[in-house]
Amino acid sequence: MMDMIDTWMVLVFPFLDFMPFGLPRYWLFRDRLRIPFRYITVLLGNLLENAVEACKRQANTAQTIKLRIKQRGGSALLILVDNPCLTPVVFDGDMPLSSKRKGAGIGTYSVREIAVRYGGTAQFEQKAGVFYASVLLNIVPDVTGKEAPAGNVCLPK
To answer: Which residues cross the membrane (predicted)?
Structure first.
């Protein structure tokens, strides 16, 4: 049986005061990922934090965050986060710019860097009042047992 890690306490506990936004409980298969758990925590934490912040800015609209984590075949994990976002998001190419400071958002930049570092992709878009974040990760274990080379990933101190 696969070792399952309940990430509820690790990732969602800090967001418990945002439960009206519909944050779900979810599981990850730690032994199937070649990505260190700390990066998964940063990735999901950034996606959820951005979604919660967007919901807090919405007035008189549905404030539900939709999180889906799906395995695609035997080699990919798809993470999708959708949230309401009526305020137009400004993009620089395919990256959303921060609403808090000049330039790219630190959270979305980290998400993209983690995905790319481990052979995946991250895409962001806004359509019809909804912001969509999609992350595809390679879950085939690295047979060398070595971590991917360091990149510019923003990790908590």
So the answer is: 6-28
For residue range 114-141, list pLDDT tens digits in order.
Answer: 999 988 999 999 999 999 999 998 876 5
pLDDT (tens digit per residue) in 140-153: 655 554 544 444 44
**Cβ-based burial of 100 (10 A; exposed 0-12, middle 13-18, buried ≥19):** exposed
Write down the pLDDT at residue 105.
84
CA 94 to chain centre: 16
Going along the chain from its start, the domains and CATH numbers come out as: 27-138 (3.30.565.10)
Q: How many CB atoms lie within 10 A of CB 43?
A: 26
In sequence order, which ranges of 35-92 are alpha helices (DSSP H)?
37-57
